[in-house]
Amino acid sequence: MVDKDYSDVINRIDLIASKIYDDLQKTNIPFLKLSTRTKSNIKFDDKLNVWKYGKSTTERSAKSLDGAYMLLRTMYVVDFIKEMIKASKSSTLREMYYISEGWNLAKFSSQQESDFLAEDLEVITGCMREDFKLRPEEDGARVIGNLTLEEMTRNNTKKKIHCQDDVGDSGYSIPYNVEPEKITFKSADAKFILAIETGGMFDRLVENGFDTSYKSILVHLKGQPARSTRRFIKRLSEEKKLPVYAFTDCDPWSFRIFASLAYGAIKTAHISEYLATPSAQYLGVTPSDIENYKLPTDKLTTEDIDALKSELTDPRFQDSFWKNEIKLQLEMGKKSEQQALAKYGLDYVTDTYLPEKLAEMGVNKK
After folding, report:
1. What is the pLDDT of residue 3?
2. Taking Cα atoms as reference points, which of 315, 257, 320, 274 lies closest to residue 39?
């Protein structure tokens, strides 16, 4: 595959090494400063229309032994990234964790630690993980719909793929890299994109032909969506002028899935403008739906309740819709799944529920 120009990426990570070197030359305690990655430090960016990190910062400093080890690991990771770029290779996050076993004192104690450092480097440099040639372990999400895209293959040729005619029931699988040098969208004969949380519901809609009957592009989120899935949806929505609706379960974790899709996730707020689709609208099962459609439910767990209470103080959930629905769910003490709609039959979700919900948003079948 033809690589893009990585010179800017190399320059940015070189600045990290230069900063540490200069500190040592001046006999100062080395440190790196970056944005605090917490809920309390995300602010709405009016220009980008997404949630970004605010002005609060933290330091990774060699004042402590743990801090010194982290800076040492940072230097090893920077060197590892440069080697991959120069060799036109890539690594999974898991592989980087195991490769650190050969870094002596700089080896990571857990993959969580190495993943966190990769995110730190994104915040410091303003680059994305993909720019570092680091990729996740998980498979891409699935897509079904009247969409034609062109993908660069392994042998450096472009191949057109129609996401209905050229795929099986599982659909087109989104790769980890969905930037323009890898994927271009050629045509999309659709009215909207429907992002679906669960695989069972995605398969139900595909089997019922919802992508055809409602001229929609269906995207399986696979729970909390991977970066490539969010980036794919954002690009497709913006480039083909398609609205996005998110169809999820009714629980606090599903609300956060929507938030990451539409507003930006807290842990990736430094790159929200690349991943979030601010125009996305929530079409998922709501606490009100539980009552209105008399859906089967499960009792909220202690973790669910704590998560809902946390969302009441989350700046991304401060409009009246979310506050009212979250408070209603806490009062009910219940949650429900997308597939609870099967109570009324296998076709109910495509024949009744989704048409009614879409109609409320001004989207009709014809």
Report:
1. 54
2. 315
